[in-house]
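Hi everyone,

Forwarding the result from last night's run.
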Amino acid sequence: MVIPCDKCPLRRCQYFLPFTEEELAFMLKFKTGELTVDAGSTVLMEGSNSPQVFTVLSGMGTRYKTLEDGRRQVISFLFPGDFIGLQAGIMGEMKHSVETATAMVLCVFNRSDLWNMFKAHPARAYDLTWIAAVEEHLLGESLTALGQRSGAQRIAWALLRLHHRLRVVGLERDGIVPLAFRQQDLADALGLSLVH
């Protein structure tokens, strides 16, 4: 069953900005459906282009880049509320891949309608710019962690960051969060070997 935007459980999270009635009415039309993806599936592949953009309704995943020698660099972890696929619309193709770590439900939107939303609701274009700025900040933190921290410090930093992200989207219960990522995922994100 498709969850309409006005009933979205993520709207209760303090992390997300409220919509005006007009914006909510637009979102109800803008959302074209939902896509359920099994754990371990590729949602978007580096080099591909998709006519859709997505937001994560539930589940967890990774954004990653495949290196020339076949190794993988995890760029970021995905959680409910995260936006996926805009890069292909701006850059012509995806510059990284997206894979699910758990079963994932994605809200589906036609990318061509995104620009109409920005014209009709410029505050939402600002919100997307804000999201991009936050992601840039987090990438800077990641680079600092990779370049300046020991292996143990990187792991501690990553676990604290993952806990924080899961807490703000309402997945913390009694101080505990579900962690769906494998040891290999953390190693690929932190530039560590599995022995760490």
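The beta strands are 31-37, 42-44, 52-58, 61-66, 72-78, 83-84, 97-100, 104-110.

Cheers,
N.
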